[in-house]
Amino acid sequence: xxxxxxxxxxxxxxxxxEVAPERVExxxxxAARRLSERVRIPGFRPGKAPRPIVERHLGRGALLQEALEExxxxxxxxxxxxxxxxxxxxxxxxxxxxxxxxxxxxVPVRPSVDLKEYAALRAPAPETAVTEEQVxxxxxxIRRRYATLEPVDRAVGWNDRVRADVTxxxxxxxxxHVEEDAEFSLREGGIVxxxxxxERVIGLERGGPYQIEFxxxxxxxxxxxxxxxxxxxxTIHEVKQEVLPELDDEFARSLDEGFESFAGLETRVRxxxxxxxxxxxxxxxxxxxxxxxxxxxxxxxxDVLVEREVDRLIDRESNHASHTQEGLQRWLETIGRTLDDxxxxxxxxxxxxxxxxxxxxxxxxxxxxxxxxEQVDExxxxxxxxxxxxxxxxSRESAARQLVDTxxxxxxxxxxxxTRAAIERLEEICKQAEGAExxxxxxxxxxxxxxxxxxxAEAGESEAPEVTSDDAPAAEAQTAPGTADGS
Length: 487
Fold this sequence. Notes:
Number of domains: 3
Structural class: alpha+beta
Oligomer: single chain
Number of strands: 12
């Protein structure tokens, strides 16, 4: 074979393969024998008709097609090996000529990533502080768990609980939605039924029916709801006001959480708020510094990685309904969207996930980060305890461990721990003072990704992109074979 290659944008390689005539003839002879076994040719037993007879009976085109179905995958795989091309998905073939036989193939290959001078990246960590307003909101939320409701003879106000018959219809929908004796609480900033409904119930008296009409926001929901006119018929049967318990020592002791006084409850609230704010701030900071790494890096990656990530997002959004065509179709009907619409909507997020994962995978390599078997075991133990509780029966713990501690599960957990290690290392770098040395970084510069990711890994439900030292946006993105199957 004569092979020429050309590197294309989006991590693709174009191959042009010219096959020697004698090899084509050998494939044609084999094809003739196969066809003579499957097609009845008058005067010959199955498999015994000579090639000229088969070719005259079926036509040269049919014979060539049969030959190419076996020949093309073989020459393609030989070309990959000869040119040391690391394909990550099936190629697109084009038959350029038959005499001589010239086949072109365009195949996606592993991405290339250059992190540039990532050790010089700096981003100050955010500071958090608990406000009095946040403390008051949390205490109010706790009081509401123990509130009592008292009927009142007045107009509806915020924080009231209303019992009513409600009928709602939206332009374009065939049937209205009807609820009798529906009960709902009205909170400022909250949504009951559809945006705008709560605000229009405020001020209404018991009785009715009231007619309420308004336009939904242009950015609300999908096209079946956005900007449409909503029409309500509401009959109010009862209005109840919320009576909150007093914030005092007696209330704190009634919670049965060991508080001796209100001061102890308030201290716990402040501590929990501080911890939660710190967690949220750190998550935002991690996104910020990973996106900073993305912005400073250069990379080239194939579209197939983005499309695989779109598949993963659809699987997550549909709660795994996409595992079957019927389930996917039912989910699409439920949300009132087409598959193309959903894929287009998710593609930007998928592209960002791919970029984040690629730079983190490169950072794992550059910093020579590793995860030991002992660390994987510790994480499995933590997950098992999370599933069963700290004092679970041995049989229940064993069953949970069998679910988690599988080859696929261990690979997924290892990838997640590598992701965590990469982000923590990036955090160390970015938090340093300006001008400080980030420490020796083992390898830098542009290079082609090496090796293969764990092909059997499952990405699970983690929001963070999974990382291996071999690359990929999520473990599923690495399962494609590098060889053709003729399809």
